[in-house]
Amino acid sequence: MHGGDVWQFELFAPVYDLLVPGADAGLTAAIETATVPVERLLDVGGGTGRGARAVDVPERIVIDPAAAMLREAREHGLAAVRGDGSRLPVADGAVQAVLITDALHHVGDQLGLVREAYRVLAPGGVFVVQEFDPTTALGRLLAAGERLVGFDSRFHPPETVREVLAAVGFEAAVRETGVEYLVVGIRPDRVDDRPRW
Ligand SMILES: C[S@@+](CC[C@H](N)C(=O)[O-])C[C@H]1O[C@@H](n2cnc3c(N)ncnc32)[C@H](O)[C@@H]1O
To answer: What structural domains and CATH numbers belong to the chain?
Structure first.
Protein backbone atom coordinates (compact mmCIF):
# COMPACT_ATOMS: atom_id res chain seq x y z
CA MET A 1 0.00 0.00 0.00
CA HIS A 2 2.79 2.47 0.88
CA GLY A 3 6.22 2.74 -0.74
CA GLY A 4 9.17 4.83 0.39
CA ASP A 5 10.72 4.65 3.83
CA VAL A 6 8.05 2.53 5.47
CA TRP A 7 9.21 -1.10 5.43
CA GLN A 8 12.23 -0.22 7.55
CA PHE A 9 9.94 1.14 10.27
CA GLU A 10 7.74 -1.95 10.14
CA LEU A 11 10.91 -3.86 11.11
CA PHE A 12 12.39 -1.38 13.65
CA ALA A 13 9.11 -0.63 15.45
CA PRO A 14 9.54 -3.00 18.44
CA VAL A 15 12.93 -1.47 19.33
CA TYR A 16 12.35 2.12 18.12
CA ASP A 17 11.55 3.60 21.54
CA LEU A 18 14.57 1.87 23.08
CA LEU A 19 16.95 3.35 20.50
CA VAL A 20 15.57 6.87 20.06
CA PRO A 21 15.67 9.40 22.93
CA GLY A 22 12.46 11.18 24.03
CA ALA A 23 11.27 14.21 22.06
CA ASP A 24 12.43 17.70 22.96
CA ALA A 25 10.46 19.89 25.39
CA GLY A 26 10.63 22.78 22.86
CA LEU A 27 7.74 21.20 20.96
CA THR A 28 5.17 22.36 23.54
CA ALA A 29 6.32 25.97 23.31
CA ALA A 30 6.15 25.75 19.51
CA ILE A 31 2.57 24.40 19.63
CA GLU A 32 1.65 27.27 21.94
CA THR A 33 2.37 29.75 19.14
CA ALA A 34 -1.04 28.81 17.63
CA THR A 35 -3.36 31.81 17.83
CA VAL A 36 -6.34 29.58 18.68
CA PRO A 37 -6.66 27.11 21.59
CA VAL A 38 -5.21 23.75 20.57
CA GLU A 39 -7.75 21.03 21.33
CA ARG A 40 -6.69 18.47 18.70
CA LEU A 41 -3.26 17.67 17.30
CA LEU A 42 -2.19 15.41 14.45
CA ASP A 43 1.27 13.86 14.76
CA VAL A 44 2.00 13.11 11.10
CA GLY A 45 4.64 10.42 10.46
CA GLY A 46 4.20 10.13 14.21
CA GLY A 47 5.38 6.50 14.42
CA THR A 48 5.30 5.33 18.03
CA GLY A 49 3.95 8.74 19.11
CA ARG A 50 7.24 10.09 20.46
CA GLY A 51 6.33 13.66 19.44
CA ALA A 52 2.67 13.45 20.49
CA ARG A 53 3.70 12.13 23.91
CA ALA A 54 5.92 15.19 24.48
CA VAL A 55 3.08 17.72 24.15
CA ASP A 56 0.17 18.54 26.41
CA VAL A 57 -2.89 18.66 24.10
CA PRO A 58 -6.32 17.18 25.01
CA GLU A 59 -6.65 15.06 21.82
CA ARG A 60 -3.58 13.64 20.08
CA ILE A 61 -3.83 11.48 16.94
CA VAL A 62 -0.86 9.73 15.35
CA ILE A 63 -0.94 9.19 11.57
CA ASP A 64 1.65 6.96 9.97
CA PRO A 65 1.83 4.42 7.11
CA ALA A 66 3.74 1.84 9.22
CA ALA A 67 1.26 -0.44 11.01
CA ALA A 68 3.88 -1.76 13.45
CA MET A 69 4.79 1.78 14.57
CA LEU A 70 1.09 2.52 15.15
CA ARG A 71 0.76 -0.59 17.34
CA GLU A 72 3.45 0.90 19.60
CA ALA A 73 1.65 4.28 19.63
CA ARG A 74 -1.56 2.55 20.75
CA GLU A 75 0.38 0.78 23.53
CA HIS A 76 1.15 4.30 24.77
CA GLY A 77 -2.59 5.06 24.86
CA LEU A 78 -2.64 7.25 21.74
CA ALA A 79 -5.23 7.24 18.96
CA ALA A 80 -3.49 5.98 15.81
CA VAL A 81 -4.61 5.98 12.17
CA ARG A 82 -2.83 4.43 9.19
CA GLY A 83 -2.21 6.91 6.41
CA ASP A 84 0.25 8.78 4.24
CA GLY A 85 1.25 12.31 5.24
CA SER A 86 0.62 13.65 1.74
CA ARG A 87 -2.99 12.32 1.66
CA LEU A 88 -4.30 12.86 5.18
CA PRO A 89 -7.57 11.07 6.01
CA VAL A 90 -8.76 14.17 7.85
CA ALA A 91 -11.43 16.82 7.10
CA ASP A 92 -10.56 20.42 6.18
CA GLY A 93 -9.86 22.64 9.19
CA ALA A 94 -10.38 19.77 11.66
CA VAL A 95 -7.31 20.32 13.90
CA GLN A 96 -5.49 23.23 15.51
CA ALA A 97 -1.98 21.72 15.40
CA VAL A 98 -0.04 19.48 13.02
CA LEU A 99 3.30 18.15 14.20
CA ILE A 100 5.95 16.33 12.21
CA THR A 101 9.10 15.28 14.04
CA ASP A 102 12.00 13.52 12.37
CA ALA A 103 9.77 12.30 9.54
CA LEU A 104 9.51 14.91 6.73
CA HIS A 105 12.76 13.62 5.22
CA HIS A 106 11.16 10.17 4.80
CA VAL A 107 8.10 11.44 2.90
CA GLY A 108 8.10 11.09 -0.91
CA ASP A 109 5.74 14.01 -1.64
CA GLN A 110 7.01 16.62 0.80
CA LEU A 111 5.20 19.57 -0.82
CA GLY A 112 2.00 17.50 -0.79
CA LEU A 113 2.44 16.99 2.95
CA VAL A 114 2.85 20.74 3.59
CA ARG A 115 -0.29 21.44 1.54
CA GLU A 116 -2.20 18.79 3.48
CA ALA A 117 -1.07 20.29 6.81
CA TYR A 118 -2.45 23.64 5.59
CA ARG A 119 -5.74 22.08 4.49
CA VAL A 120 -6.47 20.22 7.74
CA LEU A 121 -5.55 23.16 10.01
CA ALA A 122 -8.15 25.60 11.27
CA PRO A 123 -7.24 29.31 10.81
CA GLY A 124 -4.83 30.25 13.60
CA GLY A 125 -3.63 26.65 13.84
CA VAL A 126 0.06 25.80 13.87
CA PHE A 127 2.25 23.48 11.82
CA VAL A 128 5.43 22.45 13.66
CA VAL A 129 8.27 20.81 11.72
CA GLN A 130 11.21 19.31 13.57
CA GLU A 131 13.99 18.13 11.29
CA PHE A 132 17.74 17.59 11.00
CA ASP A 133 19.89 20.20 9.26
CA PRO A 134 22.03 18.57 6.53
CA THR A 135 24.35 21.59 6.45
CA THR A 136 25.66 20.80 9.97
CA ALA A 137 28.46 18.24 10.47
CA LEU A 138 26.26 15.89 12.49
CA GLY A 139 23.35 16.36 10.11
CA ARG A 140 25.57 15.38 7.16
CA LEU A 141 26.68 12.28 9.05
CA LEU A 142 23.10 11.34 9.84
CA ALA A 143 22.03 11.83 6.21
CA ALA A 144 24.91 9.61 5.02
CA GLY A 145 24.04 6.99 7.66
CA GLU A 146 20.39 6.90 6.55
CA ARG A 147 21.44 6.34 2.94
CA LEU A 148 23.72 3.49 4.05
CA VAL A 149 20.85 1.65 5.72
CA GLY A 150 18.71 2.06 2.60
CA PHE A 151 16.50 5.06 3.35
CA ASP A 152 15.50 7.44 0.52
CA SER A 153 15.74 10.40 2.93
CA ARG A 154 15.74 13.98 1.59
CA PHE A 155 16.86 16.53 4.16
CA HIS A 156 16.61 20.32 3.78
CA PRO A 157 18.05 23.21 5.78
CA PRO A 158 15.59 25.20 7.93
CA GLU A 159 15.39 28.20 5.60
CA THR A 160 14.29 25.97 2.70
CA VAL A 161 11.50 24.45 4.80
CA ARG A 162 10.45 27.93 5.96
CA GLU A 163 10.28 29.12 2.33
CA VAL A 164 8.12 26.16 1.29
CA LEU A 165 5.71 26.75 4.19
CA ALA A 166 5.51 30.46 3.27
CA ALA A 167 4.90 29.63 -0.41
CA VAL A 168 1.98 27.38 0.55
CA GLY A 169 0.47 30.21 2.61
CA PHE A 170 1.74 29.83 6.17
CA GLU A 171 3.16 32.70 8.22
CA ALA A 172 6.37 30.80 8.71
CA ALA A 173 9.44 31.27 10.91
CA VAL A 174 12.56 29.33 11.86
CA ARG A 175 12.18 28.95 15.63
CA GLU A 176 15.24 26.88 16.58
CA THR A 177 18.44 26.20 14.67
CA GLY A 178 21.11 23.55 15.16
CA VAL A 179 21.49 19.90 14.18
CA GLU A 180 17.83 19.47 15.04
CA TYR A 181 15.80 22.56 14.07
CA LEU A 182 12.23 23.74 14.40
CA VAL A 183 10.20 25.60 11.77
CA VAL A 184 6.73 26.83 12.68
CA GLY A 185 3.92 27.98 10.39
CA ILE A 186 0.66 29.60 11.41
CA ARG A 187 -2.29 29.21 9.07
CA PRO A 188 -3.61 32.75 8.62
CA ASP A 189 -7.22 33.74 8.71
CA ARG A 190 -7.91 34.63 5.06
CA VAL A 191 -11.00 34.92 2.90
CA ASP A 192 -9.36 32.81 0.17
CA ASP A 193 -8.18 29.92 2.29
CA ARG A 194 -6.90 27.46 -0.31
CA PRO A 195 -3.18 26.61 -0.26
CA ARG A 196 -1.42 29.14 -2.52
CA TRP A 197 0.97 26.69 -4.08
C1 LIG B 1 12.15 8.36 12.20
S2 LIG B 1 10.45 7.95 12.31
C3 LIG B 1 9.85 9.29 13.30
C4 LIG B 1 8.68 8.90 14.11
C5 LIG B 1 8.23 9.97 15.11
N6 LIG B 1 7.73 11.14 14.44
C7 LIG B 1 9.35 10.33 16.04
O8 LIG B 1 9.76 11.49 16.09
O9 LIG B 1 9.83 9.42 16.73
C10 LIG B 1 9.83 8.36 10.68
C11 LIG B 1 8.39 7.96 10.47
O12 LIG B 1 7.96 8.46 9.21
C13 LIG B 1 7.03 7.54 8.70
N14 LIG B 1 6.80 7.76 7.26
C15 LIG B 1 7.47 7.26 6.20
N16 LIG B 1 6.88 7.67 5.04
C17 LIG B 1 5.83 8.44 5.39
C18 LIG B 1 4.82 9.13 4.66
N19 LIG B 1 4.77 9.12 3.32
N20 LIG B 1 3.87 9.82 5.35
C21 LIG B 1 3.89 9.84 6.71
N22 LIG B 1 4.83 9.21 7.45
C23 LIG B 1 5.77 8.52 6.81
C24 LIG B 1 7.64 6.20 9.04
O25 LIG B 1 6.71 5.14 8.96
C26 LIG B 1 8.16 6.46 10.45
O27 LIG B 1 7.23 6.11 11.45
So the answer is: 7-15+26-186 (3.40.50.150)
- Cβ 180 under 6 angstroms from ligand 1: no
Ligand 1 atom closest to Cα of 107?
Answer: 19
Atom of ligand 1 nearest to the CA of 10: 25
- Average pLDDT of the chain, as a whole number: 94
What is the 187 CA–ligand 1 centroid distance (Å)? 23
CA–CA dist 142, 189 (Å, integer): 38
The pTM of this model reads 0.95
State how far the Cα of 193 lies from the Cα of 121, in Å rounded to an integer: 11
Burial class (CB in 10 A: 0-12, 13-18, 19+), 92: exposed
pLDDT tens-digit readout, 76-115: 999 999 999 999 999 999 999 999 999 999 999 999 999 9
Q: How far is the CA of 108 from the centre of ligand 1 (A)?
A: 11
Instruction: Characterize the bridge pairing of strands 121-132 and 180-186.
Output: antiparallel
Q: How far is the CA of 106 from the centre of ligand 1 (A)?
A: 6
Are 125 and 98 within 8 A, CB to CB? yes
